[in-house]
């Protein structure tokens, strides 16, 4: 699978049977994925993904920056309703052995943050407690299957938004409850995984110098002298952001300066700071600043 920065996508193993539907009104997608042995890289996306097993028996290995491991409880991954959560803005290397039939929710992180805040006082941070192990609950399979069947019946008209929103809320509410019961992450472990000052400096200098060329995670990690998955986890532990988030913030910072100081066309500003086109630039800029590039320029010069 390939993905451009900020785009929504699913992990699509070669030869897999894949179908995707939109669910509700908040940008959630539900993907049916049937496959056997495969290995694939899921790029960092601004979405939480939650993979729910429906049938089959498989052994899933995953690397989200801490090495290729089997999530706790997934050694004999065969229970209907067992699910694995992958955090937003996190690259994941997947290697799955055996047959697998699952439904995958992709939840935009802004929507998750808003809803989880209503369910639990610790908010979205509590979901990080679920990313290292399998979450078991029959409701996951029941709700996701009901949503999938309803989307098929609805056809081109799509599933009813209220129905879809209700199903999404049920899934997230159960995840929030599970997260509240889960133990807190090992903070000391995260501190040990931080980048050395030299590695962090090299990574940031490389991203600054190549921002317009859209550097890959592998290229940035190489500049820091680390493997990409070790680098990804250590960079986030050091800065509180993924390399993708750092680049996005840096692009907005550069663009803001260009908009205020030059008459450069918006399309050229977008290209110079690393966006593929003006439309994507406008979307990300508005999401980050609350205003469009043109409005920003007008206010900066008022």
Key phrases:
302 residues; 11 helices; disordered N terminus; three-stranded antiparallel β-sheet; alpha+beta; six-stranded antiparallel β-sheet; 45% helix; 9 strands
Strand content: 15-25%
Largest sheet: 6 strands, antiparallel
> Which structural class do the helices and strands define?
alpha+beta
User: Average pLDDT, to the nearest integer?
Assistant: 82
Oligomer: single chain
Radius of gyration: 20 Å
| Strand/helix succession | EEEEEEEEHEHHHHHHHHHH
From the spread of the alpha carbons, the general shape counts as globular
Strand order, biggest sheet?
1-2-8-4-6-9
Number of continuous helical runs: 11
| Terminal CA distance | 45 Å
The share of residues in helices is 40-55%
Number of beta strands: 9
Low-pLDDT runs: 1-10, 186-192
